[in-house]
Amino acid sequence: QVTLKESGPGMLQPSKTLSLTCSFSGFSLSTSGMVVSWIRQPSGKSLEWLAAIDWDGDKYYNPSLKSRLTVSKDTSNTQVFLKITSVDIADTATYYCARSPGSSGWYFDFWGPGTMVTVSS
Amino acid sequence: DIQMTQSPSFLSASVGERVTLSCRASQNINKYLDWYQQKLGEAPKLLIYNTNNLHTGIPSRFSGSGSGTDYTLTISSLQPEDVATYFCLQRNSWLYTFGAGTKLELK
């Protein structure tokens, strides 16, 4: 079955670089059409799509955050990474990774449980 | 950016009641509209994709409709387990945007 799980530092200081990992099983990112996205949600607020990487290695970014984001994947196509540079308090949120099957659209059919990140000095 | 406006923000309804949630886009999104359910402390879960396609395993009491800028999620007979916040998502433009959510409670 399809599962995803996010991991991250839990807490980091302002101005540092946030590194997140999405580990998944039950599918391969090398399968044509497959996409993995990162989405975040500050506590009590709505969701914000951040970035995505597809089966072909093409990358997509939220334009408002693009200069600070880097999405990548590993060569085994079982992990996706997200780096956010120069974090500040506004980056405090739960970060989710989610899969899009691509066959009929890039909707998010499976999500990880999320990893909470707090930016604090 | 395409703005997504959900209404109402809060809804209180009784078990068995028919419930309708709305989502309005700031421009035509060509039916690239999904609905997600998020229970407290959990990740969002896909209910409906591309306006009216029920995701695998989702009960048939959930349905979606709409076109252009206006979309609706309907729960035909509200169940206690449907208490959650519901978000719409547009995927027509490359900056995917979510609505602010509708929090659904039991009366």
Description:
In chain A, strands 2, 4, 5, 6, 9, 10 and 11 form a seven-stranded mixed sheet that branches. Chain A has 121 residues and is an all-beta fold. Chain A has strands spanning 3-7, 11-12, 18-25, 35-41, 48-54, 59-61, 69-73, 79-84, 93-100, 110-111, 115-119. Helix content of chain A is 0%, strand content 48%. Chain B is built from no helices and eleven strands. In chain B, the strands form two sheets. In chain B, strands 2, 4, 5, 6, 9, 10 and 11 form a seven-stranded mixed sheet that branches. In chain B, strands 1-3-8-7 form a four-stranded antiparallel sheet, with no helix packed on it.
Features:
heterodimer; A: 121 residues; mainly beta; seven-stranded mixed β-sheet; four-stranded antiparallel β-sheet; 11 strands; 0% helix; B: 107 residues
Low-confidence spans of chain B: pLDDT under 50, at least 5 residues?
none
Rounded to the nearest angstrom, the distance between the terminal CA atoms of chain B is 36 Å
Task: Provide mean pLDDT of chain B, rounded.
Answer: 97
Total helical elements of chain A = 0
Helix content of chain B: under 10%
| Strand-pairing-aware structural class of chain B | mainly beta
Distance from N terminus to C terminus of chain A (CA atoms, Å) equals 40 Å
The helix tally of chain B amounts to 0
